[in-house]
Write a structure and sequence with these properties.
By secondary structure, the chain is mainly α. Helices cover 61% and strands 0% of the residues. It is elongated. Residues 9-44, 46-81, 122-152 form the EF-hand domain.
């Protein structure tokens, strides 16, 4: 029941933010409203062309404007983009020193090293077992896609 409450709260937050962007109160957000309404946030950093492209990408009915549902999809796509960026940074930290020639895999050795830096002592065998749970291709290491599954 808590999850449903959180979803309702999040939807209400989206509605409030949407209303902030919807300067003329017509229930739609134009590219220029998206750009101006952002203030100092992400949207405020958009050029007019970028704002229009964002609207065009998310506009489901082809009217050149965002309704609430379009706006929610746009915001959630941005959140997912940020999440993937953060995961890539974390992946690089865990993959560093993996001995794979470029930090493109998390090996038991690189996992052990990173966990040690975080104050968690694990043997290479324990790290291998941890990796095996998410090692979809059976190569004994995690690539970025396997890491994303592990972090979901």
């Amino acid at each position: 029941m808590v999850a449903a409450g959180n979803a309702i709260d999040k939807h209400e937050q989206y509605k409030r933010v949407f209303a902030h962007f919807d300067e003329d109160g017509d229930g739609k957000i134009s590219g220029s409203e998206l750009r101006r309404g952002g203030g100092g946030g992400r949207a405020g950093e958009l050029t007019e062309e970028e704002a229009e492209a964002a609207v065009g990408f998310s506009d489901s009915d082809g009217d050149g404007l965002l309704d609430l549902e379009d706006f929610v999809r746009l915001v959630e796509a941005g959140e997912e983009e940020e999440r993937v960026k953060d995961l890539k940074e974390a992946f690089k930290m865990y993959a560093a020193g993996a001995g794979d020639g470029g930090g493109v895999l998390i090996t038991p050795r690189s996992l052990k090293r990173m966990l040690s830096r975080l104050g968690m002592r694990r043997s290479a065998t324990e790290c291998g077992v941890m990796i095996a749970e998410f090692d979809l291709d059976g190569d004994g290491a995690l690539d970025f896609d396997e890491f994303k599954v592990m972090m979901s």
